[in-house]
Design goal:
Distance between the termini: 34 Å
Number of strands: 0
Number of helices: 8
Strand content: under 5%
Shape: flat
Number of domains: 2
Radius of gyration: 35 Å
Largest sheet: none
Structural class: mainly alpha
Oligomer: single chain
Order of helices and strands: HHHHHHHH
Length: 255
């Protein structure tokens, strides 16, 4: 930490206060000057106490931030590619957590609430380390390598590339899960609409029976039933696919 700044210093006050006291002395007696001096002193004291309290609060927050530096990430902790990769992971998790099927408990909502934030944190931690090592790597390796030296540095570059590939694949798994959840969301929405119509199926059946010839009426009624069954099957399949995608992701957590 640097030296403490004197926040109570104000150049204008250095001139204003003496001039004010001189003015009071000229227009009032000694008692008035004493009262004015006490008032000015009280104002300065209150202002100093307020600024000192603010300063101590800032210092305390800075100490807490330093003590828990490993428990949060800042944008500047990551280089730009890592920032973008982490943003993709966060977008995928947000899509899952905000989905209707998640909120309705049709997928493993409890597991999502526990595992997905931890997944984001683990990805972020590794991206921070990768950013640091990548920056150091760029400083250590000369831009122009002597002939025949490329192979000596290649394993280190390959290690960074492998780490990036692994984390990118992890994020793609998250995005795959989110895609399946959003697909299930759309089918779920259609399923809910169909349930509303299903409650009125007898009305539609009666309408067809009363207005269409017998054979054609039976065909239309069967179509209503088949369509309802088809949408229900799509809904069940989409939920199953979302659960399978979650299973693939959570079977190998980043810990």
């Amino acid at each position: 930490m640097g030296a403490r700044m004197d926040t109570t210093r104000n150049p204008a006050m250095l001139f204003a206060l003496p001039l004010f006291l001189i003015l009071v002395f000229l227009v009032a007696d000694v008692e008035g000057l004493f009262v004015a001096s006490m008032g000015v002193g009280l104002i300065v004291l209150i202002r100093w106490m307020a600024l000192d309290s603010t300063y101590r609060t800032v210092r305390r927050r800075l100490r807490l931030a330093q003590a828990h530096a490993n428990h949060y990430l800042l944008p500047e902790d990551l280089d730009y590619p890592c920032q973008m990769l982490l943003r993709r992971a966060q977008n995928a998790v947000e899509a899952i957590m905000n989905s209707r099927v998640h909120k309705a408990g049709l997928i493993d909502s409890i597991e999502n609430q526990v595992s997905l934030p931890e997944e984001i944190w683990q990805i972020g931690q590794r991206l921070r380390r990768l950013s640091v090592m990548h920056a150091e790597h760029g400083k250590i390796i000369p831009r122009e390598l002597p002939p025949g030296m490329e192979d000596a540095f290649k394993p280190y570059t390959s290690a960074l590339d492998a780490a990036w590939t692994s984390l990118s694949q992890r994020v793609r798994h998250l995005e795959k899960y989110a895609k399946q959840v959003l697909k299930a969301d759309k089918v779920y929405h259609a399923h809910r609409r169909l349930e509303t119509l299903a409650a009125r199926t007898p009305e539609y059946q009666q309408l067809i029976a009363e207005t269409v010839r017998d054979e054609l009426a039976h065909e239309r009624i069967r179509e209503l039933a088949d369509q309802a069954a088809h949408v229900r099957k799509l809904f069940e399949e989409s939920i199953m696919q979302a659960r399978q995608a979650a299973g693939e992701l959570l079977r190998s957590p980043l810990t």
